[in-house]
């Protein structure tokens, strides 16, 4: 079980209460596809991902950004047992989607950078630390059912 | 692979950040220490608390070196030769840490530049910092 300090809990809840899920989901996911183009391998059915402009205006990318944020919301509301909460999601990513789990870190990094851009100076080193710990637990839980 | 456009963009960004090198550098370092505590082990000889003179001067050093490299990216191996030797034979920082500092540098840039740090700028900067780190570790073995 992961131990969260009061500061960490508050910081993480605060971030999610401040961000616009639709905007951030879409921005983080499209950044991932732009900055790490090999991640596009999982999205052959998404249509035009030819360049940054196409990716940021692609409606399927925006829709999938929302799906991702909904998934993170589940972790947020079950912070004390993300591992169990994510069991089915982990099986999905491993067996059906067959996503290399290293990609989870790439998306996590992009999400961190998008949140940083939105929050500016309020995204202090300590707040970043708490957020990255949350993402690390999320990623570890998503990796858990891979074998 | 960095395009001409990307090289120009990177050079411009670092030129703008040179006057605030100490702020940018110390911010990135603090972020790295907070998110990746293992990195602190390389700094037992310095005072790395927020606002310390050591942190400020060390951050400045790092940013100025990156900015120097950005001036002519095709010459990175030449520009970084002395730093290559320093890191390989004296500092011997495990190169996986370069990735951690690079990520935190990107976060600092995102906070500082806001919406100006577009996906295209982010991609270019990530590629540049990866190349910089790779050149820095060339003499390790």
Summarize this structure as a short list of keywords or feature phrases.
heterodimer; A: 147 residues; mainly alpha; Globin-like; B: 141 residues; 70% helix; Hemoglobin_oxygen_transport (chain B); oxygen carrier activity (chain B); oxygen transport (chain B); iron (chain B)
Question: Would you write up a description of this structure?
Answer:
- Chain B: This is Globin domain-containing protein.
- Chain B: Keywords: Heme, Iron, Metal-binding, Oxygen transport, Transport.
- Chain B: Belongs to the globin family.
- Chain B: Residues 1-141 form the Globin domain.
- Chain B: Pfam families: Globin.
- Chain A: Pfam families: Globin.
- The complex is a heterodimer of chains A (147) and B (141).
- Chain A contains eight helices and no strands.
- Chain A is globular and about 45 Å long.
- The two termini of chain A are 21 Å apart.
- With 147 residues, chain A is mostly helical.
- In chain A, helix 2 (21-35) crosses helix 4 (59-77).
- Chain A has a single domain (18-143), classed as Globin-like (Orthogonal Bundle).
- The model of chain A has no long low-confidence stretch (mean pLDDT 96).
- Helices cover 71% and strands 0% of the residues of chain A.
- Chain A has helices at 6-18, 21-35, 52-57, 59-77, 82-85, 87-96, 102-119, 125-143.
- Chain B has 141 residues and is mainly α.
- Chain B has a single domain (2-138), classed as Globins (Globin-like, Orthogonal Bundle).
- In chain B, 70% of the residues lie in helices and 0% in strands.
- The chains are: A mainly alpha (147), B mainly alpha (141).
- Chains A and B meet through helix 2, helix 3, helix 7 and helix 8 of A and helix 2, helix 6 and helix 7 of B.
